[in-house]
Specification:
about 210 residues; homodimer; alpha+beta; Trna Endonuclease, Chain: A, domain 1; 6 helices; globular; two-stranded antiparallel sheet
Chain lengths: ~210, ~210
């Protein structure tokens, strides 16, 4: 029997068990989840337990024309995507401001800086200046590894690219200066636990 | 000579000088600004000077259909407004998480609670639990007065409305437990100065 899983991505398929003839419960929970969905599930987990309040910002849209039909909801008839001027996620954890961007790459040995826009780098710097906790969550989807990378490392490489021309951050640097996140079931991407494990309270990324 | 100022609102017109026959520079800067525009100008002021990083969140939109014409930008052809699950503004100031909603009313003696949705109240409570600094900026447009009102006061009245049926916060309570903001030229609504004036660092709305 062939089953086609819609939107199934390779790193979830590894959890499939071979059919041994016995019926056993198969965990479908995280199969086919995108990295974004994994983070949203994680944030929902934190929210439900009063651990942190962190939301993804809505996609910025420039609305040009709206229809107001009688007796039904307003319909946006023409709109355009705008470039975001900030990172995608922010919120509060133990009184501290949390700000991050989530990025996925299929590369196996480095993380391409083309994943960022100049204004996101500027935003991260500004938040650091205000003593926010700022980082990037990176998913290396081909090798199934996740990292919490301090914004300072990304900014350092961003600056360097104008001098040495290198357009990516080597995985070895991310291993050295970032923090690996071991994905779980719930929460899927326990990044706040990673923050806590590496830093005493109040010492986040100073 | 009659001049019609588009979108000119009464509280800016007071700055108009009588024509004395001499030509003098007239300040058009804040005339006709909506409360939202005034806050955006204020946030831009703080951003430019590295005082705080506070942004308005984009309007949440559910996108249903998108056209990808050749050689031009993607056009959203069908989308709907979604209800926001958080407040409109958040960001970071001196390491602390800032979260607020901005509301305008034409009422002169009270602020109607119908300006809020249940989920916004829930969101404010959650942020308070995380020791965020949470408040509402209220503009009484008819009497030209601005207040910074701690979220705790709004939550208190929100709860009460189920017991005593009162559906608004009297201005007198806002005067007692909120903090009046004296509008300036730049920044227009200096709400962070108001925060600082009333609270020592670290004592915000505990």
């Amino acid at each position: 029997m062939t089953i086609n899983y819609p939107k199934g991505s390779s790193h979830q398929l590894s959890s499939l068990k071979k059919d041994t003839g016995k019926k056993r419960p198969v965990n479908f929970a995280n199969r086919g989840m995108t990295f974004e969905a994994e983070i949203n599930q994680t944030n929902q987990y934190y929210l439900d337990r009063d651990i942190a309040v962190i939301h993804k910002k809505p996609t910025p849209v420039q609305i040009v024309s709206v229809d107001y039909p009688k007796r039904s909801a307003a319909v946006i008839k023409e709109a355009y995507f705008k470039e975001a001027s900030t990172t995608d996620y922010n919120g509060v954890y133990k009184g501290r401001y949390i700000d991050f961007e989530a990025k996925e790459t299929k590369n196996k040995t480095s993380f391409p800086l083309t994943n960022f826009h100049e204004h996101q780098i500027v935003h991260m710097k500004r938040c650091l200046n205000q003593q926010g906790i700022v980082f990037v969550l990176i998913c290396f989807s081909s090798i199934k590894r996740y990292f919490l990378v301090p914004a300072s490392l990304v900014i350092e490489f961003w600056k360097k690219k104008y001098t040495n021309g290198r357009k990516s951050i080597p995985l070895s640097d991310i291993e050295k200066k970032g923090y690996e996140i071991i994905p779980g079931f719930s929460p899927r991407i326990p990044y706040l636990e990673t923050l806590d494990r590496y830093f005493g309270e109040g010492d986040y990324f100073k």
